[in-house]
Design goal:
The complex is a heterodimer of chains A (450) and B (523). With 450 residues, chain A is of the alpha/beta class. Chain A has 14 helices and 17 strands. The longest helix of chain B has 43 residues, at 328-370. Classes of the chains: A alpha/beta (450), B alpha+beta (523).
């Protein structure tokens, strides 16, 4: 197999800001906010009410249906409210708000280790579900659902995603360096669910220390190997990894399991190990606070519900004279810009990036008409024709967009927008047109049911 | 903590390259050929380049001002158009030519169709063709380069079967346009290719298509010297690297780019082989430009996941035969191109023989008319050498634009010389060329003349063929004729067709002069 996918871009990495900073645990002091919808699927249902006393590791909202996930309290204290609060997306969402007493009393210190060999597949999945684990890579797909594909025997690859291709972010690099054995243990647990699968730890070549650490950790594990991938965005995307490792391209209508692959972030695998061996639910995870506007960029293990403002303070606050013009949840390629730093960290927040310069604003000034240079076509990891898609989107030719140009297969990685010399907002247009097409489909389906 | 954080949809990072960076890089890549052009052809070439660029930028500025559009001259695309036009002009054109051309390119071809990224043909090429058609005289005069002896361009010479100096063509020190240095163009073009600014799919398929077509149908096989001479001349390199690769007017997909490139190469070679215009390459690119929307409509590559191999890998689908995997439009396009090529060459091949036969017949007929006693005509070495030395150029200085084609000796049944025939064309006719044969008696006096090509105005110039005029040329024992002359060498002009009459007299005088100085002396 080649060590990469077709297309892609290579943005400035900017990882040196924080890449040598080891993970350190940050215990929040302020109020903690837990949105009920942190995952893909139905929001969880709150099972606590105002005035209730809660402890660390307690489930405060239960999964509602199959594709949903529990929400776990990461501190101890009293429930202040169950109300709408502003979240990362900018929208007001239902949240459980807990007044943190700072004591972090919990039901367990999670030190009793169970023997993994004694656990059945059903028990493993049940523990993952109870722990409220979702994909920590960004999308937040409930992990217990991923562990139950139609044909578990057909899964050929379990891919541990340690690519971390987003610029700036380094927390998984540090996680792999410090907890390599734990991640491999997590992989071994998942490999029990998929007996025919081979484990592959996929890491971009710009993280030699993490590659060395993982290489050392896989010694003696016959079913697992480490693979260094070319440093190229979006190498850490599910499809890119499957292309690089299994050599398969698959349409957007299929799931990785349909082509015999399961992809889990290394952070998720670490969480699976904690949940299955120590019954520790997911309430804390690695996170990088970085960017040119941050005084001391660093990597934390943070508790869910902590506010952005508090973490920025924990990283030394803003640098003097460096005004943050844009703050992102995540990295600059697929991250979301936040309107306020009084929003809580959720399970899928892997970075807070504070930028001193807004490339989008500059791009809007430099924008010209499309040159038809074809750079977007060259970099698209799915082999789409972004330039033609943009033309179809402009005149709202939904049919051409969807059927002729396969526009719905766009994964919104942003490579085309990144590379465009004319600075056209391509990805943004595609997100918009996709939402419109989906809305039309729903409307058509609703009309048919009348 | 700031009060107003910027909110926008991702990605929040952008590559450094901008439209203006790309355009200015292209401009820099054109600089070597511009410098060579100025060094070889002198300061006037520099003025042409500057005038062209200034006019291009100015036109865009004026258009933006009048239509109240955002000023777009900073993106550098107007300057690139101006530069490309200047480099494809002859270094002797008057300064107003690039000014008018650039204004046409920017205003008519680019801005009126919506500006950057919306033009349907390459603006610089369109302007060049516009200038060629509108101001042909001013455009086609190529000056003498420093150490060059002929006035035709190398490609024009190639078309006439002459050999050319490839080294000079490669360096750009021979007759041609300002940007004719293949070396300098290659330097710039390869840099652009290396930087991924131009698509290798286009430039190399143009060159490949052209070379293969030239080798197959050029009549000299894959003779490296012949192919190199054609590749180095007539703007092939300029076209392949700078004109055909224009983003807006070339297809987006790789397969489309290959199709488009081959189309240009094949058409360019066909025009070069069967056409007579040294500018044929410009037309082939413009025609391919017009095909681009069609190529982009039919050749849309499927995303990786939907290609046959990927589906097979994901689902284990049985193999599909190769010929079914070729998109139908590609087959259709290929067939159309092939058919067009075959039809073109077929039509030419058929008509070519007929035209040649007619010419031969007309020649033979006229030869016999002016030298009726002759049974056979034979060539003369002195005359042939003298004609070759003219290299297709004008004969003498006092006969207008007279060209000598052939000079033969007529022999009667007993093998004795009974006269000479000289085939001559005078370009000074009212409707262009007049071709006729001049019969000369063994003693050097004029026997008679007979026309082989006379396309003069009916009722006026066409009267030249009538006895009243043409019989005046019979049996004149004079060295030179004079139109409306009072002496014994006078010829009365046709009433209302002095130009035609003068052309015939000039041509006849040229033939008489040629006979005396070359053939009579030689005998």
């Amino acid at each position: 197999m080649k060590d990469t996918f077709r297309g892609g871009v290579h943005p400035r990495e900017r990882k040196s800001l924080s890449r040598e900073m080891p993970l350190r645990v940050y215990n929040a002091v302020g109020e903690m906010v837990f949105p009920l919808a942190q995952h893909i699927g139905k929001p969880a249902k709150a099972i606590v009410k105002k005035g209730d006393t809660v402890t660390v590791g307690q489930c405060i909202a239960e999964a509602d249906g199959f594709v949903s996930a529990n929400v776990i309290c990461s501190c101890s204290g009293k429930v202040k409210a169950v109300e709408k609060r502003r979240t990362i997306s900018g929208a007001m969402q239902e949240c459980v708000v807990v007044e943190n007493d700072g004591l972090y009393t919990g039901t367990s210190d999670y030190s009793v280790r169970d023997n993994p060999d004694a656990l059945s597949v059903e028990e493993i999945i049940a523990r993952v579900k109870a722990a409220g684990i979702i994909g920590l890579g960004g999308a937040g797909f409930p992990t217990h659902v991923k562990l139950m594909p139609k044909t578990p025997l057909g899964v050929k690859y379990l891919i541990a995603n340690g690519a971390e291709c987003e610029p700036y972010i380094t927390c998984n690099d540090q996680l792999m360096r410090a907890y390599s054995d734990e991640i491999i243990e997590g992989m071994e647990i998942v490999l029990k669910v998929f007996p025919n699968a081979e484990g592959v730890v996929a890491i971009e070549s710009n993280k030699p220390e993490a590659i060395a650490a993982m290489e050392k950790a896989v010694q003696g594990h016959d079913r697992i190997r480490v693979m260094a991938l070319r440093t190229k965005y979006p190498q850490g995307g599910e499809r890119s990894l499957i292309k690089a490792i299994a050599g398969i391209d698959y349409p957007v209508t299929k799931l990785p399991a349909d082509v015999g692959c399961i992809v889990d972030n290394v952070g998720t695998l670490y969480a699976i190990r904690q949940a299955v061996l120590y019954r520790e639910p997911l309430f804390r995870h690695p996170l990088t606070v970085t960017g040119e506007a941050i005084a001391n960029p660093c990597n934390f293990i943070v508790r869910d519900g902590t506010s952005f403002a508090e973490l920025i303070q924990a990283a030394g606050g803003f640098k003097d004279g460096k005004e943050a013009v844009k703050i992102l949840s995540g990295g600059p390629m697929m991250g979301v810009s936040v309107s306020s730093i009084d929003v809580p960290v959720t399970k899928t927040t892997n970075a807070i990036t504070a930028l001193t310069e807004d490339a989008v604003e500059r791009a809007e000034r430099q924008m010209t008409a499309c040159l038809h240079c074809g750079r977007c076509t060259t970099v698209c990891p799915s082999g789409l024709m972004p330039q033609m898609m943009a033309e179809a989107a402009e005149i709202r030719d939904y049919d051409r967009y969807e059927k002729k140009l396969y526009g719905l297969d766009c994964v919104a990685c942003g490579s085309c927008t990144y590379i465009c010399p004319a600075k056209r907002p391509l990805t943004q247009t595609f997100k918009q047109i996709k939402a419109e097409i989906m809305a039309r489909k729903r409307a058509a389906a609703a009309g048919g049911n009348k | 903590m700031t009060n107003a954080l910027h909110i926008s949809s991702g990605p929040h990072f952008r590559d450094r390259w901008t439209t203006s960076f790309i355009m200015h890089t292209v401009l820099l890549a054109l600089l070597p050929s511009a410098v060579v052009g100025v060094l070889v052809y002198g300061l006037h070439a520099l003025f042409i380049i500057l005038a062209s660029i200034v006019s291009a930028i100015g036109s865009e500025w004026i258009f933006c001002a009048i239509t109240k559009r955002k000023l777009s001259i900073t993106d550098g695309s107007a300057a690139v158009t101006g530069m490309m036009l200047a480099l494809s002009l002859s270094p002797s054109v008057p300064i107003w030519i690039p000014i008018v051309g650039s204004a046409f390119a920017i205003i008519v071809v680019k801005c009126l169709f919506g500006g950057l990224g919306k033009n349907f043909v390459n603006p610089a090429l369109a302007a060049r063709c516009f200038l060629l058609i509108s101001f042909g005289n001013a455009m086609t005069v190529f000056p003498l380069a420093a150490d060059c002896v002929t006035s035709a361009t190398p490609v024009a010479l190639l078309a006439q079967g002459y050999t050319v100096n490839i080294t000079q063509m490669f360096l750009g020190t021979t007759n041609g346009v300002i940007g004719s240095s293949v070396l300098a163009l290659l330097v710039g073009g390869l840099i652009l290719w290396g930087l991924d600014i131009i698509h290798g799919e286009i430039c190399f398929s143009v060159l490949a298509g052209f070379t293969v077509m030239m080798g197959l149908f050029g009549g000299q096989g894959f003779d490296p010297e012949f192919l190199l001479a054609h590749l180095c001349g007539g703007g092939v390199v300029m076209g392949a690297f700078f004109m055909a690769t224009d983003y807006t007017t070339s297809p987006v997909s790789r397969l489309g780019q290959l199709t488009y490139g081959c189309l240009i190469g094949v058409l360019g070679a066909l025009f070069r082989i069967f056409g007579h215009s040294a500018d044929s390459f410009s037309y082939s690119i413009i025609i391919a430009n017009l095909f681009t929307p069609m190529i982009d409509t039919y050749i849309i590559p499927k995303p990786y996941a939907y290609r046959k191999a990927a589906i097979k890998k994901a689902n284990h689908v049985p193999k599909v035969p190769f010929w079914q995997q070729i998109p139908k439009p590609v087959i259709a396009l290929t067939l159309i191109t092939l058919l067009a090529g075959v039809a073109l060459s077929g039509a030419f091949a058929m008509t070519k023989d007929t035209i040649e036969e007619q010419k031969l017949a007309a020649n033979a007929e006229s030869y016999r008319a002016v030298c009726p006693e002759a049974v056979t005509f034979e060539g003369n070495k002195d005359a042939a050498d003298a004609i070759a030395a003219l290299e297709g150029g004008v004969y003498g200085t006092s006969f207008g634009r007279s060209y000598i084609h052939e000079a033969v000796i007529g022999r009667d049944a007993s093998g004795e010389i009974c006269g000479y025939v000289i085939s001559v064309t005078n370009g000074g006719g009212y409707e262009g060329n007049i071709k006729f044969s001049v019969g000369i008696k063994p003693d050097g006096s004029l026997a008679s003349i007979a026309f082989t090509e006379l396309n003069e105005t009916p009722g006026k110039g066409s009267k030249a063929a009538e006895p009243a005029f043409i019989d005046q040329f019979k049996n004149r024992a004079v060295k030179q004729l004079a139109l409306n002359g009072a002496g014994d060498n006078g010829i009365d002009a046709i009433s209302g067709a002095t130009i035609t009459s003068s052309a015939v007299v000039n041509g006849t005088n040229a033939a008489l002069d040629f006979f005396r100085s070359v053939m009579q002396g030689g005998n």
